[in-house]
Specification:
The chain is an alpha+beta fold. It folds into two domains: about 25-200, no CATH class; about 205-315, no CATH class. Helices cover about 50% and strands about 15% of the residues. It has 13 helices and seven strands. The protein has helices at about 25-40, 45-55, 55-70, 80-100, 105-110, 115-125, 140-155, 160-180, 190-200, 205-210, 215-225, 250-260, 310-325, and strands at about 15-20, 225-230, 240-245, 270-275, 285-290, 295-300, 305-310. The longest helix has 20 residues, at about 80-100. The protein is globular and about 60 Å long. The chain starts with 14 loop residues before the first strand and ends in a 7-residue tail after the last helix.
Length: about 325
């Protein structure tokens, strides 16, 4: 397994690490190196990635999505850096799942093999946020519309059979549409994209928003997360470990990452843990881990506390459904 540093990807022993490094170009370069290494054995998926990273339309989409989210809304990074960081993370997760014998939906449906899975995951992950350039509201559906011509341009030369190409493309579009859990993804590929998106919570992502004057729980809590490690788990195929310098980072884990594990097919395959580094603030809790839909907190005094994850998106969805008289089971 490879490690990704700050969304970047140096080679170390253990897992893929995401932590904070400064230069934007270096982040993209290191993430790109990790992506190429993961796709080296999959020439069609690698060709798709190379076409995407050089596509002028995709490059413009990333820049404009970032302009709207950061400059107009004061959000964290949603542009090129985020696309490359999450792209590298998604391949690390995919590799761990396939190594553990997990059959994704592209495989289970008979649509394709591992190469098609890697291609769908990298394209879906790197294009998932481009709809933000139109507006944050409805950005998932906007992203589907904007991604279509890019996918057709990239996939056309790679899939001679339009029947198969259209089927593989459907998994990519589904992942883009469901990456923010509105609605929650139904496929493993969609779950990989959602979880990879949720792993980009380190302080490198929040620093620019903070510097631009967006001082809120999102930017502050992002500054409290030093590192995210994606590696092989003991009880499940994937272990995601978050290291914080301050307990404020728990907001990122609880509000951003945990729901993307809990509300997707990845729930069965991912262990999630968070801890404050020893040299951080005065410790109140020593470790947090996800158990089902609860966080289990190990306090410094030796006590253990279980807290249900606050999934605000699900609460809003349930409230709307209740007002419409629709049961949760029927949705």
């Amino acid at each position: 397994m490879r490690e990704m540093e700050a969304g970047a990807a140096p080679e170390t022993a253990g897992g893929r690490v995401v932590e904070f490094t400064t230069p934007r170009a270096k982040l993209i370069e290191e993430a790109s190196r990790a992506i190429r290494a993961d796709l080296a054995g999959y020439p069609r998926a690698l060709a798709a990635y190379e076409a995407l990273r050089a596509d002028p339309e995709a490059l413009a989409h990333w820049d404009m999505a970032n302009y709207v989210t950061m400059r107009k809304l004061g959000y964290n990074d949603h542009g090129r850096v985020h696309a490359f960081i999450t792209g590298a993370a998604s391949l690390a997760i995919t590799e761990l799942l396939l190594d553990a014998g997990v059959r994704t939906d592209i495989m289970e449906s008979g649509v394709g093999d591992a190469e098609d899975v890697f291609l769908a995951v990298i394209l879906g992950t790197m294009l998932h946020d481009i709809g933000n350039q139109i507006h944050r509201a409805g950005h998932e559906a906007h992203g589907v519309a904007l991604a279509l011509p890019i996918l057709d341009r990239i996939m056309g030369p790679l899939y001679a059979d339009p029947f198969k190409r259209t089927k593989v493309r459907s998994f990519i579009l589904g992942a883009i549409n469901c990456h923010d859990l509105s609605p929650a993804p139904l496929t493993v590929e969609g779950g990989i994209v959602a979880v990879a998106d949720g792993t980009d919570i380190t302080k490198g992502r929040g620093r620019k928003a903070f510097a631009l004057g967006s001082v809120d729980i999102h930017s502050i809590s992002a500054l409290a997360v030093d590192q995210v490690v994606i590696e092989r788990g003991r009880d499940k195929p994937v272990l995601i470990s978050v290291t914080m310098n301050n307990s404020g980072g728990i907001f990122q884990v609880e509000e951003v990452l945990a729901p993307k594990v809990i509300r997707t097919p990845m729930r069965n395959f991912v262990e999630l843990r968070a801890a404050i580094r020893p040299q951080g603030e005065e410790q109140i809790l020593s470790r947090v881990r996800l158990d089902g839909d609860h966080f289990v907190m190990d306090l410094d005094g030796g006590e253990t506390v279980r807290v249900e994850v606050e999934d605000t998106q699900k609460k809003v969805t349930d409230a709307i459904a209740q007002n419409l008289g629709v049961s949760a089971e029927s949705r």
